[in-house]
Specification:
The structure is a homodimer of 188-residue chains.
Chain A lengths: L3 E2 L15 E7 L2 E7 L2 E6 L2 E6 L5 H9 L1 E7 L4 H7 L9 H5 L3 E3 L6 E3 L2 E9 L3 H7 L1 E11 L4 E2 L2 E2 L9 E5 L2 E10 L5
Antiparallel strand pairs in A: 1-10, 2-3, 2-6, 4-5, 5-10, 6-9, 7-8, 9-10, 11-12, 13-14
Chain lengths: 188, 188
């Protein structure tokens, strides 16, 4: 997996168009991954993200214990595994093994950067106990960001083929691919 | 503009795939609209949303004063106005007039449902002073939801043509259309 660093000030671009994400986590020799459609940028500089993580999940336990997570942006080719990651619990066994996923620890966090994804945001949680308790809502500061340079470089997405497009989750196993890019001018 | 009620429990589907939104607001005879890419569902039942609204905007002033807003999902045909709505301030004059936008008050809120959009979520803010102050982050409860039945019905999007697709914002005037739908099974 080729990864190129994305400048922190540009890292919001990896999430700005609303793709589904995989939240990966690790603590004390245990790791996990879950799907999260409810993730978005929260600030530019320093870059922050917001993501909803159900408090009953193993992911929440690992994120709470480690104070860290990675938001991975899966390519369309990974859609079946993204769906499966949202349909089973890591409490029933290591999901990476169960789903055939691989990954390695980030530069700043122990949570894994998942192979087959096209962008990665390494985050530390900014503790917000009320948000976490009432809304299952986590705020993270982005410590490092990466993208597959075949897909994102110079601050722009340029999907080389459909298998490497980002995807957007609807429900019930249905996704949309990220579609055609187009530019408009404010004074059109 | 044809609008059909969307059951509240299904209203998250209008935002789940991460489209750009227009936030409309009204208070004391003044109205406004701004673009917000940073919006997402926050809960299913009762349905909630999270949206980032810069505290320096007229929208924030109107939302704070009225306790309400509408998240409108613009169609691709409205992309130029969505960009323009994000590029000027309602403090310089009524944006609806300036941009040629029209709309009428919602069923539950005074904020307008904007013509040319394909889905609408009427929301009341759930006051979270710390989120609003520190992160410009608003939590809203969805009171009513609507969609153009030519585009969304029976809990599914079915875009009849490219002009009525939802859109996803990148930066600098670049958008993506919502692309091809596809289904996967968790055990593929």
């Amino acid at each position: 997996m080729t990864r190129q660093a994305v400048p922190l000030a540009k890292s919001y671009l990896l999430l700005n168009h609303g793709p589904v994400t995989l939240v990966s986590s690790a603590h004390a020799g245990q790791r996990n991954v879950m799907a999260a459609a409810w993730a978005m940028p929260l600030d530019f500089d320093p870059p922050k993200v917001a993501v909803v993580i159900d408090k009953n999940t193993l992911t929440a336990a690992l994120v709470n214990a480690s104070g860290e997570f990675v938001l991975n942006v899966p390519a369309r080719a990974l859609a079946d595994k993204a769906l499966a990651a949202g349909s089973c619990s890591g409490r029933d066994g290591d999901k990476f093994a169960a789903l055939g996923l691989a990954g390695e620890a980030g530069m700043c966090v122990a949570a894994p950067l998942i192979d087959g994804c096209i962008a990665w945001l390494e985050c530390r949680i900014l503790p917000e106990p009320r948000n976490q308790q009432v809304y299952d809502l986590y705020v993270g500061e982005v410590l490092a960001a990466w993208a597959d340079p075949a897909v994102f470089s110079e601050g722009r997405w340029h999907f080389p083929d459909d298998a490497r497009r980002s995807i957007h989750y609807v429900a019930g196993g249905q996704f949309f691919s990220t579609g055609d890019a187009f530019d408009v001018k404010a004074n059109d």
